[in-house]
Amino acid sequence: MDKYLSLIVNRFETYISFLNQFEPTNEAAIFINNSFIYSEMERVNTLLNHNKNLTHERRRDYEFYFIELFHVYHNTNDSKNKFDAMIYSLKNAIQVLKLTEHPLVKAEMN
Predict the structure, then answer these.
(1) Which of 7, 48, 96, 100 has the smallest CB count inside 10 Å?
(2) What distance in Å separates the CA atoms of residue 108 and residue 110, rounded to the nearest whole number?
(3) Across the 110 residues of the chain, what is the mean pLDDT of every consecutive 10-residue run?
């Protein structure tokens, strides 16, 4: 896995650890969703729209990251049990990102 994708996975794991510090309530999930996930989504979206100097691989990483943030944010908002939905979505995002490989990294390993 690419170093940047590994950092993203670590960030999602940190969100899960952070969630474990709270009582498992919808309010805690809403707080984290609005305070962290949404702001990060906005930051990544701005970077994708305004930074024309990103390499193809880095742009691809940011796009994967944005997509996973989008899923976490909306799955949490749309669920009745927001806390569990957020944990599930974060774990799913981690799995997806761990399975993501760059063609260049894969070619170098062979």
Answers:
(1) 7
(2) 6
(3) 78 87 88 92 92 83 90 94 93 88 48
